[in-house]
Amino acid sequence: MADDGRRGDEDERGPGAAHHMFVVMEALLEKLKLLNYEEDVLAKHNMKNLSRHYFVSSPYLGFNPGEQFYMFTIIAAWLINTAGRPFTEPQEYEEPNAMVSNILAELRAFGGKVDFPPSKLKSGSGEYVCLVLDRLADEALRRKGFSYRRPNYPTETTEEESVIEDDAELTLSRLEEEMIEEPDEEEENVMDLETLKLRTTHTETDASSKPEEILESTVDAAEWNLEVERVLPQLKVTIRTDNKDWRIHVDQMHQHRDGIKSSLKETKSYLDKLQEDIGKTLEKVSSREKYINNQLEHLIQEYRSAQAKLSEAKERYQQASGGVTERTRVLAEISEELEKVKQEMEEKGSSMSDGAPVVKIRQSLTKLKQEIVQMDVRIGVVEHTLLQAKLREKSNMTRDMHATNIPEPAAGPFS
Question: What secondary structure does DSSP assign to 113-174, as a single string?
Answer without folding.
Answer: ---S-GGGGTTS-SHHHHHHHHHHHHHHHHHTT-------PPPP-HHHHHHHHHHHHHHHHH
